[in-house]
């Protein structure tokens, strides 16, 4: 996430809905520094902020606080993800404003179909945001039921691997976990021949062919981890 703007800029960005403040927001983020940064920024903008460091904590606080909005990281450490939290609480994205703020440019990297991100949620990638005011603008948009297309980074055509299918993303993630073709076939419950074909198509789609110098699976794993981080083992079967 880019550097926050100064307080005058924050106040200006929040002014359009300041008459409705204070509004409450739950921020679920497992990284302590990022959690503190987001919390301080939103408090400066006039929100009442409650923070959670895990999916379990987030679920409890959302029920207890009944917030106006929730900011969810997708990867909340071992266990359920932010997408699990959102799908398990029907109010999120409907009565409660929802913003995903994550390192994943695409929810498929976490083992989910792109549709898992609620259609009435904003989906922001930390690395693709120009500065923190984008988060405030996204929150205002979900709270005021505005068009969210500009805040759906998971739909941007310039996101990494935008041209890959869900099956290809899954295959690439499993390769990055060090799985063999036979292991991928077993996990996906497909034949070895079908899996070999899928893997070959996936590698070609990201510019790797059998004639590529070096270890092609290492190259594929490197590409995945550069764009999606180290894949979690507990998402293998997704």
Task: Describe the fold and architecture.
- Helices cover 40% and strands 11% of the residues.
- With 238 residues, the chain is an alpha/beta fold.
- It folds into two domains: 7-155, Response regulator (Rossmann fold, 3-Layer(aba) Sandwich); 166-235, Orthogonal Bundle (Arc Repressor Mutant, subunit A), CATH 1.10.10.
- Strands 2-1-3-4-5 form a five-stranded parallel β-sheet, with helices on both faces.
- Helix 1 (7-14) packs parallel to helix 5, helix 6 packs across helix 8 (192-205) and helix 7 crosses helix 8 (192-205).
- The protein is elongated and about 60 Å long.
Regarding CATH, which class of the largest domain?
A: Alpha Beta
Most strands sheet: 5 strands, parallel
The domain tally reads 2
Radius of gyration (CA) equals 19 Å
Shape assignment: elongated
N-to-C span: 27 Å
The CATH architecture of the largest domain? 3-Layer(aba) Sandwich
Helical content (DSSP H or I, runs of 4+)? 40-55%
Pattern of helices and strands: HEHEHEHEEHHHHH
Total strands = 5
Question: In terms of structural class, how would the helical and strand content be classed?
Answer: alpha/beta
Low-confidence stretches: 3-19
The helix count comes to: 9
Biggest sheet strand order reads 2-1-3-4-5
**Average pLDDT metric:** 84
